[in-house]
Design a protein that fits this description.
Blueprint (H helix, E strand, L loop, with lengths): L1 E4 L2 E9 L2 E4 L3 H9 L3 E5 L4 H16 L13 E9 L6 E9 L7 H22 L14 E2 L2 E6 L4 E5 L8 E6 L12 E5 L2 E4 L9 E5 L4 E3 L15 E6 L2 E2 L14 H7 L8
Parallel strand pairs: 2-4
Antiparallel strand pairs: 1-2, 2-3, 4-13, 5-6, 6-8, 6-9, 7-16, 8-15, 9-14, 10-13, 10-15, 11-12, 11-14
Bound molecules: fe (ii) ion (FE2).
Fe (ii) ion binds next to loops.
């Protein structure tokens, strides 16, 4: 365990029998997340395997038309996100690929995607003491929305926003490529007790950020010195597994802080779903 700055910790990690393990037991990791701290678990996946995930996602997106209509939260789709969200008024510009129905994909693409989403799914279950598989569940219940997000060069970003703590509890962001090589700017930032934590430059390919899900967070912009193009695959790529009921109550428009009050009164016990 290494302290990078206030509220910012890294842990060594590895992949073992298809599961993600860290240098600390899962309960201790969740305690660090809930205190709260931004935790980066280092060196989980090898970079070459993650490049395959990017390449397979790109190949799929080239033969799949961009979705123009609203999300249905049931099918595989990719979309240019370029708007200001209704409730939180968070501006955003990125390209997401949401795999809501992995069994409907070609078997080789399924296998490639599950090489990251499988371990991420099992890791989330271990951290939160749940046993929820990927895929749709009974009506009204939350389910996973595996997503590969591309932040192109030249001005992509995601403005400050937050989520309800439950049912997700802990957000997972896996870096699929390398800062300083594949992209030179942009990363996820957080605020804890009036302290800004910028992870830009601290997350290598194969590292995974863990964060308490109701922390305000954002993605800082890729440099405007580069030329922007939706068609250029350069830029930051990440994998995430949001867990929510898309027809449930959206996050409130007010930020869930003053943080100090929120954290002091928060129920830190993991909630089964
Ligand atoms: Fe978010």
């Amino acid at each position: 365990m290494k302290k990078i700055a206030d509220y910012f910790i890294t842990l060594e990690g590895r992949l073992e029998n298809g599961g993600i393990v860290t240098e600390l037991p899962y309960d201790d990791v969740m305690q660090l997340v809930n205190e709260p701290n931004v935790v980066i678990v280092k060196n989980i996946f090898p970079a070459d395997a993650l490049q395959q995930v990017i390449d397979a996602t790109l190949a799929w997106s080239k033969q799949e038309p961009l979705r123009q209509e609203p999300d249905d939260f049931m099918s595989n789709a990719h979309k240019h996100r370029l708007h200001i969200s209704n409730i939180q008024q968070a501006p955003q510009l990125f390209h997401d690929h949401t795999f809501e129905n992995i069994p409907a994909l070609q078997p080789d693409l399924q296998q490639t995607l599950l090489s990251v989403f499988g371990p991420m799914n099992r890791f989330w279950n271990r951290l939160t003491n749940n046993d929820v598989p990927l895929g749709r569940r009974a009506e009204g219940e939350p389910y996973f929305h595996p997503q590969i997000t591309h932040y192109p060069l030249g001005g992509s970003f995601f403005g400050r926003h937050w989520h309800p703590l439950n049912p997700q509890q802990v957000g997972l962001i896996l870096a699929l490529n390398q800062y300083g090589k594949d992209y030179h700017s942009g990363g996820t930032g957080y605020v804890i007790n009036d302290t800004i934590i910028e992870t830009e430059g601290h997350q290598n390919a194969g590292d995974m950020i863990l964060f308490r899900y109701d922390l305000p967070h954002w993605v800082s912009p890729s440099s405007f010195a580069d030329r922007f193009s939706w068609d250029d695959p350069k830029g930051r790529w990440v994998a995430i597994i949001p867990f929510y009921n898309p027809w449930g109550i959206p996050a409130p428009s007010e930020e869930p802080q003053g943080w100090k009050t929120q954290i002091a009164t928060a129920d830190l016990q993991p909630e089964a779903v």
